[in-house]
Design brief:
There is one protein chain. This protein has nine helices and no strands. By secondary structure, it is mostly helical. Helix 1 (2-46) packs antiparallel against helix 2 (52-73). The chain is elongated, with a radius of gyration of 21 Å. The longest helix has 45 residues, at 2-46.
């Protein structure tokens, strides 16, 4: 009888220790992914070159290798059915990673990264996955991407050629929202993130609408129009920062579950 309790104690200790390690790793993944997203935005904003998005994507992917190496080190922790047992501890960081990876992919290819492409980045050189990627984590991570696309679109508006970029991103985010609506009833928490997506889409539409109206009403030189747009962008950016903090607090990125 006593030996049985010793085994139970050892099993519980092992569970709790592994859970704490995975929570810490998920927080590290979240921090690295957020830094990558900030890096992508900074490179795109600071450079007027046409190659800026592609250059940003290349540096972003290089930064994300740190996350991939971290997941590789966790492979033995998530073997077999352990992944499903600890999925709630892994999920927050994984979604943030997918958000960063999909943003880099969009900057380079102007399209959504596929499920198989994400899983490939979470596999070893032989193509064996470190752990199975779930459809819910994939979709929730892509849903977060729309917020970054909103920031990308609004920051691009005041630059040369940025208005066309904003219109393109607006159509893309609108299509993403429509596609996500089809699976919202089947994915937990996706309805909450769809609310944030709707807010992001509304901000892009408002900015694009204001630009199109000004262009149609006034025959302004491009330089003057850029100045007017830049003033409008500052208002959207200030409101967006407050929304981002609220979103992070609501979803508790990397929190203990």
């Amino acid at each position: 009888m006593l030996s049985s309790f010793h085994r139970f104690r050892a099993s519980l200790d092992d569970y709790n220790d592994r859970r704490e390690r995975l929570i810490k790793a998920s927080r590290d993944v979240t921090n690295l992914s957020k830094r990558t997203i900030f890096l992508l935005h900074r490179i795109v904003v600071e450079s007027d070159s046409d190659d800026a998005p592609a250059n940003a994507a290349a540096k972003g992917r290089e930064k994300l290798r740190e996350v991939q190496d971290l997941y590789a080190s966790l492979k033995h922790e998530l073997q077999g059915d352990r992944f499903w047992r600890y999925q709630r501890q892994v999920s927050p960081g994984l979604q943030e990673y997918i958000e960063a990876l999909s943003f880099a992919h969009y900057l380079e290819h102007r399209s959504l990264i596929t499920f198989d492409q994400v899983q490939q980045t979470l596999s070893d050189s032989d193509g064996v996955p470190y752990f199975p990627l779930t459809v819910s984590d994939y979709l929730l991570g892509l849903s977060d991407l729309t917020g970054e696309l909103m920031r990308f679109a609004i920051s691009a508006i005041s630059r040369r050629g940025g208005r066309a970029t904003a219109i393109e991103v607006c159509a893309f985010v609108r299509a993403c929202k429509a596609d996500f609506e089809r699976v919202t009833p089947y994915i937990r928490d996706l309805s909450k993130k769809q609310t944030v997506t709707a807010q992001s889409l509304e901000k892009i539409e408002d900015a694009v609408y204001a630009i199109v109206v000004r262009e149609s009403e006034y025959a302004l030189p491009q330089e003057m129009l850029d100045d007017i747009v830049a003033q409008s962008v500052s208002t959207f950016s200030h409101h967006d920062e407050r929304t981002r903090w609220r979103r992070d607090e609501e979803y508790g990125e990397g929190e203990e579950l």
